[in-house]
Design goal:
This protein is α/β, with parallel strands linked by helices. The protein has three domains: 243 residues, Rossmann fold, CATH 3.40.50; 153 residues, Thiamin diphosphate (ThDP)-binding fold, Pyr/PP domains (Rossmann fold, 3-Layer(aba) Sandwich); 133 residues, 3-Layer(aba) Sandwich (Rossmann fold), CATH 3.40.50.920. Helices cover 40% and strands 13% of the residues. The chain contains 24 helices and 17 strands. The protein has a seven-stranded mixed β-sheet, sandwiched between helices. A five-stranded parallel β-sheet has the order 1-2-3-5-4, sandwiched between helices. It has a five-stranded mixed β-sheet with strand order 12-14-13-16-17, sandwiched between helices. β13, α20 and β14 form a beta-alpha-beta unit.
């Protein structure tokens, strides 16, 4: 039997087990925790770099603070894999992001050590302030700690929360995990010494005394003394901004050096301040694993990989990804029209604008994790005569809904929304599933809303959106590979509000919006083989809806079934309203609607998630047979 590579970690069942360890043992624990994290993610895939960067911080926080009584919120939650290992979930860590396994983010229902779910960024300080105020109202004395990093501090919401927290008399600790050196000056022994000094009780007492003394001085001298002290600290530490927001700033300190981390965190824990504290910690994303340290994105998100080489396992693609198809056509449009610009919110690669950025660096804008700003920025570009494409994931666009309504739709500004990750997304689960964009966009006046059935259709929709100059437009497409269809170039723009019929039948009509079209065609083959002649149509547009197509299907078939990869209130609602308006629901027509169920579907493979949602070909067949009064045929063999 081989000797364990993690003998000390093997003895840790919960964070309390770390609190009797010596500093030397804590360093060993951190090394073993890094080994375990790498080994686990090598088997499951997931977010690797950010977690490796907070290994020492994770150990230090759980050693110093009394979690779970002390509240610890990780932001973004994909930093929390080492945290999960230390908090009683090590035996399940190799189920990470698998069906029925651990979430890739913090999740309240998963553990008492996950007090708040953080799969989208920049929410931790707001939530932590809520926990802190609730504690004060209850008369309790526990600590509340928010760890915000991996770019999350670039969002306006974080600063809104800090501004609020700085004006509230409550004890709150914010750990800024600065893992890209975007804020921090150089760190080292002097910085560590100053951080220990600034967080210590003697300095805080001296500072309090100095403030009291300054208040006894004439007002101009008091103001001068206060500013001198603040700017001296700001010059040394870079913390003037946070001080101005009302935080007591400590740092920056080396987030990989436990000799630096532990005394500062202990000082901060023991401080009984009535205003918030911010501890600025500098870490290296991918720390301790050479392939991650050397990769351009620090192994932010990876598939399964070989630990020795770092080489990731890649499924052999059958077709290009939808994201790359969008990327290619956006570049073509950029070559054709120098007014085409692209806007992304910290996701140039994920949203497919990275190639556009390389080709047209002056016409591509990464606004950081700031979707609200990004949408209004795009609206300003549109108002000034440019043709912006705002490439934002479906669930991230939710964060900017007011801007979509107020700044874009009401003013009829031609911002073009490229909505990636539409529908169910697999391992990232419900937090990243694009279930609601059809509903929340198609309900707005002045919007064109399209959904691509395949990569050829997506190419044409990009070309279509590029030419819509009188109102906003959106086109949605899923994560993953296309259908393998041929893409004809140059792309021919679509006629606005016109769908297409792919096969003709007489009994059942299947009307699909989006990539359920492939499953609809499979279902049509099955139904036709059973003797029920079936039409398949692709709506292409939810808004403006092709009412001639919808009414024609309704008048010429016994059954009309709609399919969409979206939630209730979306495409089906528009179809039903059209039928009602044309009084076609008063006839003998039977209408059935198929959409995502009214639940949040847990993470799994996309295939299994769509099976759980009952949106695959067998489900379409069963729906049609039931509407025909032939439910008993569902399991019957096909007709010859």
């Amino acid at each position: 039997m081989s000797e364990s590579r993690t003998p000390l970690l093997d003895t840790i069942k919960e964070p309390a087990d770390t609190r009797g360890l010596s500093d030397a043992q804590l360093r060993q624990l951190a090394d073993e925790l890094r080994v375990e994290t790498i080994d686990a993610v090598a088997q499951t895939g997931g977010h690797l770099g950010a977690g490796l960067g907070v290994v020492e911080l994770t150990v230090a926080l759980h050693h110093v603070f009394d979690t779970p009584d002390d509240i610890l919120i990780w932001d973004v939650g994909h930093q929390a894999y080492p945290h999960k290992i230390l908090t009683g979930r090590r035996d399940r860590i190799r189920t990470l992001r698998q069906g029925g396994g651990l979430s890739g983010f913090t999740k309240r229902t998963e553990s008492a050590y996950d007090p708040f779910g953080t799969a989208h960024s920049s929410t931790s300080i707001s939530a932590a302030l809520g926990f802190a105020v609730a504690r004060d109202l209850d008369g309790r004395d526990n600590n509340v700690v928010a760890v915000i990093g991996d770019g999350a501090m670039s969002a306006g919401m974080a600063f809104e929360a800090m501004n609020n927290a700085g004006s509230v008399d409550t004890r709150l600790i914010v750990i800024l995990n600065d893992n890209d050196m975007s804020i921090a000056p150089p760190v080292g022994a002097m910085s560590a010494y100053l951080s220990r000094l600034l967080s210590s009780r003697p300095y805080r007492g001296l500072r309090h005394f100095a403030k009291q003394l300054a208040q006894k001085m004439p007002e101009p001298l008091e103001r001068t003394a206060r500013r001198a002290e603040e700017y001296a600290r700001g010059l040394i530490t870079g913390g003037t901004l946070f001080e101005e927001l009302g935080f007591f700033y400590v740092g920056p300190i080396d987030g990989h050096n436990l000799d630096h981390l532990l005394p500062v965190l202990k000082n901060v824990k023991e401080a009984r301040r009535t205003n918030p504290i911010l501890v600025h910690v500098v870490t290296q994303k991918g720390k301790g694993y050479a392939p991650a340290e050397e990769s351009a994105d620090k192994s932010h998100a990876v598939s399964r990989f070989d630990i020795v080489t770092g080489a990731q396992a890649k499924a052999k693609p059958n077709a290009p990804s939808y994201t790359s198809v969008f990327s290619d056509q956006l570049v073509r449009e950029g070559e054709r029209d120098d007014k085409i610009v692209a806007v992304t919110a910290a996701m140039p690669s994920g949203t497919g604008v990275a190639e556009f950025q390389k080709r047209f660096p002056n016409r591509c804008f990464d606004v950081g994790i700031a979707e609200q700003h990004g949408v209004t920025f795009a609206a300003g570009l549109a108002a000034a005569g440019y043709r912006p494409f705002a490439a934002i994931y479906s669930t991230f666009l939710q964060r900017a809904y007011d801007q979509v309504v107020h700044d874009v739709a009401i003013q009829k500004l031609p911002v073009r929304f490229a909505i990636d990750r539409a529908g169910l997304v697999g391992a990232d689960g419900p937090t990243h599933a694009g279930a609601f964009d059809i509903t929340y966009l198609a309900s707005l006046p002045n919007f064109v809303v399209m959904a691509a059935a395949d990569e050829a259709e997506l190419t044409r929709m990009v070309a279509t959106a590029a030419r819509i100059d009188d109102r906003p437009s959106a086109f949605r497409y899923p994560r993953g590979e296309g259908e393998g269809v041929e893409i004809e170039l140059p792309a021919e723009p679509l006629e606005i509000g016109k769908g297409r019929v792919l096969r003709e039948g007489k009994v059942v009509a299947l009307l699909s919006l989006g990539t359920r079209l492939g499953e609809s065609l499979k279902a049509a083959e099955e139904l036709t083989a059973r003797g029920y002649s079936t039409t398949v149509a692709d709506a292409r547009f939810c808004k403006p809806l092709d009412e001639d197509l919808v009414c024609g299907l309704a008048r010429n078939h016994d059954i009309l079934i709609t399919m969409e990869e979206g939630a209730i209130g979306g495409f089906a609602a528009h179809v039903l309203q059209c039928l009602e308006r044309h009084k076609l629901l008063d006839e003998d027509l039977k209408v059935r609607t198929m959409m995502l169920p009214d639940v949040f579907i847990d993470h799994d493979t996309p295939k299994e998630m769509y099976a759980a949602a009952a949106l695959n070909a067998p489900d379409i067949v069963a729906t049609a047979l039931s509407a025909l009064g032939r439910a008993e045929e569902v399991e019957a063999p096909k007709l010859a």
